[in-house]
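Priority: low. Protein: Pyridoxamine 5-phosphate oxidase. Input follows.
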Amino acid sequence: MSVNLSLLPADEKNKVELDKQAAFLVWKLKEAKTGPDEIDQQVGKIVDEAERTWFIECVAKYKRLMGVA
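Result:
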């Protein structure tokens, strides 16, 4: 099934972007290319509470999937 992401509403596009960022940061953590402080810094930059919560949930999801403690 093909989905055109450009047709999504702005808030959904942002959720997709936050999910991608979370996946990348957890991958970097797993590969020892960064520390947990970078994730904390990213969380601190997110102003909207709902977006912050979403990002934290995505980080937890990818940590679980990638086996990162």
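The chain has a mean pLDDT of 95. Residues 9-66 form one domain.
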